[in-house]
Specification:
Strands 3, 6, 9, 13, 14, 17, 18 and 19 form an eight-stranded parallel β-sheet that branches. Strands 1, 2, 5, 8, 11, 12 and 16 form a seven-stranded mixed β-sheet that branches. Strands 4-7-10-15 form a four-stranded parallel β-sheet, with no helix packed on it. About 5% of the residues have low confidence. It starts with 7 loop residues before the first helix and ends in a 9-residue tail after the last strand. It is mostly beta strands and about 290 residues long.
């Protein structure tokens, strides 16, 4: 794209906001994109916003990261999507493509300096209604969703047996947002998994989860060597590596440690009334992590 033109800032919006579908293989080769900024609060024409607006059948996006970026895609449209990697998955099964296969998003991430806002924002893929595989990905940024919000996939309305497959992933967002489809809650519920609208395995989330297919743990247990204990099914020999004081990162990125989240959850304080002349000190700590003793 030619940035020497006077109107390059206006045309640049079409690079990552609109309804263009990418069909192909994109190997980021361990590169990390920063400085991605988009703000739309009234234009309903650009309902999809992300590094990739949409991907189609047989596509692969791999070894790609996003950091220090902000995407706001709101407005009157209640189906606006925003994602660090891809905003929308084309409903390729209905298009009759010959020899089409499900797209794959692998070894991708959005760091904790990424902010996403839409009706349904997600760290990796905001919306899908058909099969896609997301594997070995993580998101630790901030999400603001008016309808759904999730670390991996926010809005999923796939038919039974044709939903997304999410495996070997984790999410540790500012608000403890789980992986998966909202349905008003921000996480896959058990019905979503048991009727095969989604297939999850080896997924971890900082916070709570409404399904046994996702393991909820404190973000404090995701850090350093604790990750191997509390997130044991990630491949730490070939794909992932632990970071002292931070969450796991992907080995395919140079200087990967800088993209680990070292953020702590919000500390909680429990106060008590005094017992006569005795002063009862408040309890302070992190939910799901700090032990409480008598």
């Amino acid at each position: 794209n030619n940035t020497s033109k006077a109107n390059w800032q206006d045309t640049a919006k079409m690079w990552y906001a609109g309804q263009y579908v990418f069909r192909g293989v994109f190997d980021g080769n361990g590169h990390v994109v920063s400085g991605l900024y988009y703000y739309n609060d009234n234009n309903n024409d650009n309902a999809w916003a992300g590094l990739f607006q949409a991907i189609g059948h047989s596509s692969t996006i791999k070894r790609l990261g996003v950091t220090e970026s902000s995407i706001t895609n709101t407005g009157a449209n209640t189906h606006t999507y925003a994602a660090a990697i891809c905003a929308y998955l084309e409903h390729w099964r209905d298009r009759g493509y010959k020899d089409a296969t499900a797209p794959v998003i692998s070894e991708c991430f959005g760091s904790d300096s990424v902010y996403l806002e839409a009706s349904a924002p997600a760290g990796i893929l905001a919306a899908t209604q058909t099969a896609v595989t997301i594997e070995n990905c993580y998101f630790t940024g901030e999400l603001t969703g008016s309808v759904y919000a999730a670390g991996m996939v926010a809005d999923n309305w796939a038919a039974s047996g044709y939903g997304p497959t999410i495996k070997n992933c984790y999410a540790a967002t500012l608000d403890g947002d789980p992986l998966g489809d909202g349905y008003g809650t921000g996480s896959f519920n058990d019905d979503t998994v048991t009727d095969e609208r989604a297939f999850l395995s080896n997924c971890y989330v900082a916070g709570s989860s409404l399904t046994t297919s996702i393991t909820p743990i404190s973000v404090m247990y995701m850090k350093g060597h604790d990750a191997k204990k509390y997130m044991p099914n990630l491949d730490y020999n070939k794909v992932w590596k632990t970071v002292e004081g931070g969450t796991p990162v992907l080995r395919c990125f140079a200087n990967a440690e800088k993209y680990a989240s070292q953020r702590n959850p919000k500390e909680v304080t429990i106060s008590f009334g005094n017992l006569g002349d005795a002063v009862v000190e408040p309890l302070r700590g992190y939910p799901g992590y700090t032990p409480i003793s008598k």
